[in-house]
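Batch manifest, entry 17 of 40.
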Amino acid sequence: MPKRAELATLRDRIARLEAQEAAKTRFDTPASTRFAARPAVPLGVDRLDDRLGGGLLPGALHEIRSADADGPLAFGFALALAARLTAANREVSAHSPAPHSPLRGTTLIVSTFDGAGEWGRPYGPGLAAFGLDPDTLLLVEARRPREALWAAEEGLACRALSAVVTEIRGDPPLVDLTATRRLVLRAARSGVTAILVRPGTADGLSAARTRWRIVPHAVTDPAASTLSSEEAPSKAPSEASLETPLATPFPLCLSPPAWEADLERNAAPGASRPGGRFSLMWTAHDNRFTDAASLSANHRSGDRYGQNGSRAALSGAAPAASAAGAAGATTGGSVIPIRHAG
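Output type: structure tokens
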């Protein structure tokens, strides 16, 4: 027990040091090379946006961590953030088409052979159903993490990009505080948002403004577990689930992508509190997050289906995602993932 207490104390001290380093990095950048600061981008969930001080901060580094088995899950969350940034850039450019405010609509995705071989490569039809236009994506596949970091730094120097998503699996020693601070400096100079995805990383120093830990969010269909009142008490649950027809005649379909996101670090300016856990669901039709917990409550209260059997709460949303990170659309019973092998 004393060793655990000492370890917890050291972790808290490291987190404070990292937050101080991340907070001063942007202001250490010379004003002559720093890109004009842009307002925070609201993610769509009021409680989360308030916690972040208005939304996700552009021109900064945001880190996403997960268990190694949840690598596609973390990658999908990063793509959702990139899609949200791209949509916000389009909204700003539509309302104020100034010459000095170019449309940032391209996202650079940097991955390694290790991650691509384990989980597959980005898949065009799935990305389109997820809310990302494949024509606006640039894909770079590096052999080693060092090359991936180099490609990410070079991409962050290009102000025409909206975001640079870099996926580095595991915990290589070179992805340390110095390397992440270089990404922070590049992002602050150009205004391009850096998103670093690190599956299989538990601890480690980082200069990121925000750090997220992603775990699966189980989304259950209440109709799938609803049995007729006459037959449910007479059979065991296992027998009833196999033999008893569902009480609702509506066809079942998969829910949109959803995550449990732990905001482990929050060094954004104007942040109300350091962190917290949020249940987030992605809606591709408007490129925003919604509160998955509130939607689940509405479903349990009977607000999910309209009188004609349509999905009232999720109309227009991309109807595909699994807790393992797949997302796409259902057509004829098939699921289009955002990653595809081969």
